[in-house]
């Protein structure tokens, strides 16, 4: 089967690109590191890829706000290419800083390019959170992530991860089934309690998709748990499969079949 081509977008400050490359390659895709200047200079074309992946890190040093400058760059210089990519049913994944960027472009949650409907604000704790948390998938419009009762252990590393919006916007996100992941407690129930909810996100939202189900953003890092031994308690908890694997497996499978 043909391996989907993945554009892993890099710029100054991204630092989870190699982990993301490894994850996609491990599960059967053909990732390629692409600097944003290569897209701007037309030496690389977004139309050559099936998946656009925005990794975590601190793009442009998180100046102004996390992901803000990269979002402005995408809106200002790559708007047509992105709109064409979306219209041709390409898939987009944004993790942590990539999620922040997608929110600030307006592609998430409602695909309103250039209009910011929600934000990822500073953590309620007032500090950078670097820990393992538990999330769960819900029934959503995401085309390659299905709802499940399985608890997913996953790492978070962020200072601005609080999903926040006006009540009517949060309700619209819920009504349109755009919530893909929520922070949960030990019993699997969505929680606002710290540290299970590491940032105070409204409705315990950890990740969302757009109405087409083809654009996914999440604050936790699935690429940091694609090998069993990446999890610190893998022996004690008798982990048999890395919890971040399914996102890449299902995304690649969907791209191959569509």
From TrEMBL:
Gene3D superfamilies cross-referenced by the UniProt entry: 3.40.50.880
Active site location: 96 (nucleophile), 221, 223
Pathway field: Purine metabolism; IMP biosynthesis via de novo pathway; 5-amino-1-(5-phospho-D-ribosyl)imidazole from N(2)-formyl-N(1)-(5-phospho-D-ribosyl)glycinamide: step 1/2
Catalytic activity field: N(2)-formyl-N(1)-(5-phospho-beta-D-ribosyl)glycinamide + L-glutamine + ATP + H2O = 2-formamido-N(1)-(5-O-phospho-beta-D-ribosyl)acetamidine + L-glutamate + ADP + phosphate + H(+); L-glutamine + H2O = L-glutamate + NH4(+)
InterPro entries: Class_I_gatase-like, PRibForGlyAmidine_synth_PurQ
Pfam families in the record: GATase_5 (PF13507)
Record keywords, A-Z: ATP-binding, Cytoplasm, Glutamine amidotransferase, Hydrolase, Ligase, Nucleotide-binding, Purine biosynthesis
GO biological process assignments: 'de novo' IMP biosynthetic process
EC number(s) recorded for this UniProt protein: 6.3.5.3, 3.5.1.2
SUPFAM superfamilies according to UniProt: Class I glutamine amidotransferase-like
Listed CDD domains: GATase1_FGAR_AT
Compartments, record wording: Cytoplasm
GO CC term, one of those recorded: cytoplasm
Signal peptide: none
Domain of life: Bacteria
GO MF annotation, one: ATP binding
Task performed by this protein: Part of the phosphoribosylformylglycinamidine synthase complex involved in the purines biosynthetic pathway. Catalyzes the ATP-dependent conversion of formylglycinamide ribonucleotide (FGAR) and glutamine to yield formylglycinamidine ribonucleotide (FGAM) and glutamate. The FGAM synthase complex is composed of three subunits. PurQ produces an ammonia molecule by converting glutamine to glutamate. PurL transfers the ammonia molecule to FGAR to form FGAM in an ATP-dependent manner.
Record text on subunit structure and interactions: Part of the FGAM synthase complex composed of 1 PurL, 1 PurQ and 2 PurS subunits.
NCBIfam families, per the entry: FGAM_synth_I
Protein name: Phosphoribosylformylglycinamidine synthase subunit PurQ
Organism: Candidatus Curtissbacteria bacterium RIFOXYA1_FULL_41_14
């Amino acid at each position: 089967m043909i391996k989907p081509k993945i554009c892993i977008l890099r710029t100054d400050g991204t630092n989870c690109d190699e982990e993301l490359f490894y994850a996609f390659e491990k599960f059967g895709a053909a990732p390629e590191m692409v600097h944003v200047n290569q897209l701007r200079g037309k030496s690389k074309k977004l139309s050559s890829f099936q998946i656009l992946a925005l990794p975590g890190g601190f793009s442009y040093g998180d100046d102004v706000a996390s992901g803000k400058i990269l979002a402005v760059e995408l809106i200002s210089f790559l708007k047509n290419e992105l709109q064409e990519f979306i219209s041709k049913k390409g898939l987009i994944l944004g993790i942590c800083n990539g999620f922040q960027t997608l929110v600030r472009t307006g592609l998430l949650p409602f695909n309103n390019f250039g209009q910011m409907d929600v934000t990822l604000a500073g953590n309620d704790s007032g500090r950078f959170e670097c820990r393992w948390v538990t999330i769960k998938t819900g029934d959503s419009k995401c085309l390659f992530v299905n709802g499940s009762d399985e608890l997913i252990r996953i790492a978070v590393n962020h200072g601005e991860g609080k999903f926040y919006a006006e009540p009517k916007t949060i309700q619209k996100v819920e009504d349109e089934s755009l919530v893909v992941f929520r922070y949960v407690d030990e019993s699997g129930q969505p929680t606002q309690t710290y540290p299970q909810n590491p940032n105070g996100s409204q409705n315990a939202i950890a990740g969302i998709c757009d109405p087409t189900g083809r654009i996914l953003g999440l604050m936790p890092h699935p690429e940091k748990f694609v090998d069993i031994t990446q999890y610190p308690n893998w022996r004690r908890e008798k982990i048999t499969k890395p919890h971040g694997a399914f996102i890449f497996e299902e995304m690649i499978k969907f791209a191959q079949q569509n």
